[in-house]
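Quick one: structure tokens for this chain, please?
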Amino acid sequence: MLSTKRVIFLAGLTLGCAVSLFADGQVIGRLIKASVSGVDTTKLYEPLVTISQSSILALRSFTLKLSGVRERDSKQYEFYNDEGTGNPVIWRRRTRGVTVRPLNAYITVNPGPDNTNTIVINYEYRGRRGFGNVVYVIATEQ
């Protein structure tokens, strides 16, 4: 059985993640699912999320803003990909201005029915408590 990481990686390769997810700018999406280390955390966040992407020279950045039901649950993630490294699939994460190097970070776009896209953000990290995995599934319109 394939692991989630491998499935997302293969999906990213087949979809050609070297192209932009969407044009530079901001998009409002709907949070379908959120999980941290296998625990469903979707109820902690408002259903609408803000996604923005920009590209300057060979550096692409992707920002995800999640509004929490309670203020302390709000999160903002910033991922970047330096296309000069030769790997358009693996992203890095930046938090509070400091680059965090996750084990793996994948952002893939799956086209869906009725002119919609499903964005899957999956990153794995090693922290104080050991290994962790965060997954966000977001639906957007094209």
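Residues 10-22 have pLDDT under 50 and may be disordered.
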